Amino acid sequence: MSNLGQPNIDLTRLSSNSHTVNGKSLSSDDMINSVSMISMKINSSNIDYVKKFTSEGLSKESRIKLIGQIKNKLGCDIFEFSTCNRILYVGFGTNCDELERCVLSIFNQKEALFDKYSGIEVWRHLVKVCSGLDSFIIGELQVMSQFRGSISLHRENNLIDEMNSSFFSHIISANRLLRKEFGFNQTTESMLNLASNAIEEVLSLEENPLCVVLGFGEMGRKAVDVLLSQGQEKVVVFSRNPEKSSQRDLQLSSRITILSFDQWSLEQIKPSLIISTVRNIEPTFNSSNIIPNKNPVKIMDFSWPPSIDSTGISEGQELLGMEYWIKVAHKLGVEWDYESTIEKSEVLISNIENKFMSALSDRNQGMFRAFIYKTLEQLSSQWSDNRNSGEENLQLGAFSREIATWICNREGPFSSNELNEMILSTERKLNPSLLKIVASDVTEKIIHINAKSNLTEAAL
């Protein structure tokens, strides 16, 4: 080896802060700056737009197909998230204008009132969303569950790759820190829990009341559970498919009556309270399909988009839809010192943001270290055989980790001679012949890795 002792091994490029994405080397700043988001949080001026772009009411299969269409048309990973009060689309490797044009095209719309976020502001805003800092009820728990569920859906259906998936993992981590700091884990779970007091108040006015729940999905079952926990014995659920719905929770369905929507008018059921959790793109009850019951009744609609239009009820009936629950939520939010909480959260998010960027920068270095340790561990397995003593085999594993640590701690180039000397000068009691094999194998392997341009290539 003609240049033995010279700095002919330089692994710094493999452990640098750059990332290889689609064959291109990107810095951490490049990666975060390529993230864009368009979003709408429901208010009086954009409610019609939100209805047009939400995936609420779609089946799981339809939602996956929709996101896939956007991803294919835009040519990059897409993350979509819709709740009862917001919609958002995140694009990786695109800008806000391109993302908006694509979404408008897929939904066949000409305009929308999207708020736009780029770079680290996407991460900051999603941390606020996930943590409930941007919810109607500050700190609500349900949004966290919905967010995590949406991440899982995107991962399982290859809508976001591993690299972009880690972006959301850091959001979840930040969410945990914020919730712990503010004690949000003790706050109300959902809009339905918020309304449990209202339900109890309505039913306390009547003796032996009859309650009707529309839908027996997740929210419908929660509604039934609330009613039963309040001692209500007469609960009727209307579902599109009663037989299928009853199988979702056999214990719960055994305590109630489940009928089809067609049976409502035939049975002439006159409820004291109607709770709707039906998910549909258009209202199930409107001017052309009025609720069969004509008697005065309080109707609580927890669906989004709304399942009951104001034209779908009769005179004397009171509809408490999303606008009502938004107002109630704001009133309850006063118990939190909102302004102080938001101000403090900005400081916390900034601190967490710094950790996130450091983690993003360190990610490739961590992958490099893991690769080196794994490589040396594999070599140590090859060195262990029946000719070595049991004590020597035990030492080989520890020695391989020692060598890996030495390699990973090099801050610049080093020579193969330095690597050889480090191995041969060990104080471990190893057979000299075995030690020479170790030195030869490690040097040969590291020189091979040194010839590669990136970690992916080195691992082959």
List the helices and strands and how they pair.
Layout: E1 19-21, E2 24-26, H1 28-33, E3 35-41, H2 47-53, H3 60-74, E4 78-82, E5 86-92, H4 96-106, E6 115-118, H5 120-131, H6 142-156, H7 162-182, H8 191-194, H9 196-203, E7 211-214, H10 218-229, E8 235-239, H11 242-246, H12 250-253, E9 257-260, H13 263-267, E10 273-276, E11 298-301, E12 318-320, H14 322-332, H15 338-383, H16 390-408, H17 416-424, H18 432-450, H19 455-458
Parallel strand pairs: 7-8, 7-10, 8-9, 10-11, 11-12
Antiparallel strand pairs: 1-2, 3-5, 3-6, 4-5
Q: What structural class results from the helix and strand content?
A: alpha/beta
The CATH level-2 architecture of the largest domain is identified as 2-Layer Sandwich
Looking at CATH, which topology of the largest domain would you report? Beta Polymerase, domain 2
CATH superfamily of the largest domain: Glutamyl-tRNA reductase, N-terminal domain
Shape: elongated
* Helix proportion range: 40-55%
CA radius of gyration is 30 Å
Strand order, main sheet: write it out.
Answer: 9-8-7-10-11-12
Q: First CA to last CA: what distance?
A: 25 Å
The first-level CATH class name of the largest domain: Alpha Beta
Please outline the major beta sheet.
Answer: 6 strands, parallel
Could you give the count of β-strands? 12
> Mean pLDDT, rounded to whole units?
79
Proportion of beta-strand residues: 5-15%
User: What's the number of structural domains?
Assistant: 3
Assembly type: single chain
The low-pLDDT segments are 1-5, 18-26, 186-190, 332-338
Discrete helix count: 19
